[in-house]
Amino acid sequence: MTLGALAAIVGLALVIAACSTETAATSGQADRDGQVDPGDLAASGGDASVDNSGSNAFAQPAPGLDSDERRAFVVGNNFFNDNWVTAPASTTARDGLGPVFNAQSCSSCHFKDGRGQPPTEQNPEELGLLLRLSVPGSGEHGEPAAHPAYGGQLQDRSINGVPAEGSIGISTTEISGEYADGTPYELLEPSYSVIDPAFGPLGADTMISPRIAPPVFGVGLLEAVPESTIEQLAQEQAEAGDGISGRPNVVWSPTLGEMAIGRFGWKANVATVADQTVGAFLGDIGITSSTHPDQDCTGVQLECLAAPDGGQPELSDSKAQRVTFYTRTLAVPERRDVGESSTDNGAEVFERISCSSCHVSELRTGETDVAALSEQTIRPYTDLLLHDMGPGLADGRADFGADGSEWRTPPLWGLGLTSVVNDHTRFLHDGRARSVEEAILWHGGEAERARDDFVALPRGDREDLLAFLNSL
Ligand code: HEC
Ligand code: HEC
User: Fold this and answer.
1) Residues 194-208: tens digit of each pLDDT
2) Whole-angstrom Cα distance, residue 23 to residue 365?
3) Nearest by Cα to 366 from 10, 115, 4
4) Omega of the bond prior to 313 within 30 degrees of 0, cis?
5) How far apart are alpha carbons 190 and 176 in whole angstroms?
6) Residue 441: CB atoms within 10 Å
């Protein structure tokens, strides 16, 4: 069965259908008394939710997959987790690593389908952070113009005999502040550089965007939200006139062969899970596919160009489809502690200080080829839109329609399980925040008022808000 091909066709039909159907962006599941069933509140991924708050909470298949779908999930899971090796090798199914790369498997960055953390002096081997690179201008489809010598991403590892491009340098400055009640806090502001660049200095006009590996569960549900819903949210925000007005990114989809609304990546710079999958295989692991048949070597990287490959392409279409299917159908963990006074109050504070204007609590998926993902009411806490987050978070690098200070509202589902699954609490696009609190304190731009309101909260409300976020 070619699930991916089917998905592409059905997906296309849906995009067209979605434009003509009316969708309520926030449909609501309240009954006649306006009460929402606590069970609905807990089921963050609708029927694609699982009651699991352990270290494998992000790694579960959506309940309701049929037996063929389960098989595709299992095969995809293997290819997500297994290490790729240098070609030629006896394991021809998984050879072709590099020549330059960042990691040997998807799961080295998305450990247990979760979130990466930046390298530190204590943990220099962390792989979850990568640097996107570009120079002024844009490519054929409006994408950032790749660096002529280093390409679109710094690959800091390589196979034998091929030079790695360089390594990531991070230096941090402390910023201190205090809450309105006098409680002090400290933030770490990172700055990035390329150490030991193998092909000469990058040049003063090179733009660097640090990106940490986000969790990958629930992406099939987000992909199934109709484009019209995303556009409607943007329109509602523009009409509200309260200083918060997100807009969709519009990006080139190499697997669809057309422009589409961006949903994935920290700047909504990728349209579909299939695009993200084949893009990651090439950019992060150095594995070619029918979508990306050429290795990621620039013209000056002669050893890279001359290295043996692991097949043309190295990844078959069926494997690409299985891995795509796998991440699409990873279930969302249920919320914990729904109905407790602290989390209930925290949820109210979340609404009151406008966190929910961007982190939209409820969306509805449309029809897709996977029944388990279709027509679900989900609680992802995102609008999938780009927002200006101010100079403190800006990377100064455009990505399709996103400018240098815009970021996609990240989903907040599963947030509180980060420490359980990934053993850390690093947040934001580069993992600079060491806690949920720090992530909020970094908000600026369109979110500056929400941030100021957070700082001004009485301690009890602040703690309840954090309790709510940790229950997601
Ligand atoms: C070197 C680390 C690394 C590896 C290896 C890696 N990823 Fe990622 N992944 C990232 C980063 C960083 C992002 C965010 C990219 C961006 O903002 O452009 C991301 C984003 C994603 C997303 C989108 C999630 C979202 O909510 O936006 C998916 C899905 C994903 N990766 C799947 C994969 C798959 C499948 C593989 C293996 C083929 C893989 N990744 C390999 C680092 C990695
Ligand atoms: C104007 C839109 C907007 C508002 C309002 C807003 N956020 Fe965010 N939020 C974002 C964006 C965009 C990011 C990603 C920024 C980045 O990574 O640089 C983010 C990131 C976060 C993160 C980190 C998520 C992760 O995966 O790393 C948390 C937690 C968070 N917001 C909570 C809140 C809370 C709580 C409030 C209310 C006090 C709030 N946000 C208000 C847009 C918003």
Assistant:
1) 999 999 999 999 999
2) 10
3) 10
4) yes
5) 14
6) 20
Among 110, 272, 291, 415, the mutation site with the greatest number of ligand 1 atoms within 8 A of its Cβ is 110
Residues sharing a CB contact under 8 Å with residue 70, sequence separation 6 or more, in sequence order = 61
Q: Is the beta carbon of 110 within 6 A of some atom in ligand 1?
A: yes
Indicate whether residue 432 lines ligand 2 (CB < 6 A). Answer: no
The answer as to whether 134 is a domain residue is: no
Ligand having the closest approach to the CA of 395: 2
The percent of the chain in helix, strand and coil, each rounded to the nearest 5, is 35, 15, 50
Query: How far does the centroid of ligand 1 lie from the alpha carbon of residue 132, in Å?
Result: 12
Peptide bond into 248 cis (omega under 30): no
pLDDT in tens, 125-141: 899 999 999 999 999 99
What's residue 36's pLDDT? 66
Provide the domain count of the chain.
1
d(CA 154, CA 158): 11
> Is there a contact between 101 and 285 (Cβ–Cβ < 8 Å)?
yes
Q: Ligand 1 within 6 A of 273 CB?
A: yes
Ligand 1 and 275: CB distance under 6 A? no
Inside any domain, residue 135: no
Separation of CA 328 and ligand 1 centre (Å) = 13
User: Domain containing 341: what range?
Assistant: 3-117+211-470
Task: Give the other-Cβ count within 10 Å of 452's Cβ.
Answer: 13
- Is this model's pTM higher than 0.90 or not? yes
8-state DSSP, 405? T
Closest C-alpha among 210, 246, 209 to residue 231: 246
Instruction: Give bridge partners of residue 253 from the DSSP assignment.
Output: 258
Question: Which residue numbers in the chain have pLDDT < 70?
Answer: 1-36
- In a domain? residue 191: no
Query: How, if at all, do strands 167-178 and 49-50 pair?
Result: unpaired
Residues 322, 79 contacting (CB under 8 angstroms): yes
Residue 132 lies in a domain: no
What's the rounded Cα separation, in Å, for the pair 331 and 131? 29
Instruction: Return d(Cα 266, Cα 280) in angstroms, integer.
Output: 14
Among residues 288, 274, 293, 297, which one has the least CA distance to residue 97?
A: 288
**In contact, 127 and 107? CB cutoff 8 Å:** no
Model pLDDT, residue 407:
99
